[in-house]
Amino acid sequence: MMYANETHKTKTETTFSGQYIRVRIEEEIFGVDIVHTQGVVGSRVFSPIPNSPDYVRGYMKLVGEEIPVIDMRAKFGLESVTSDFHTHIILANVQMHGKQVKAGLLVDEVMGVDVTIPSAVSDAPSYNERADNTFLFGVLNRTDGAIKMLDVEKVLNTSI
Question: What is the mean pLDDT of the chain?
Answer without folding.
Answer: 85
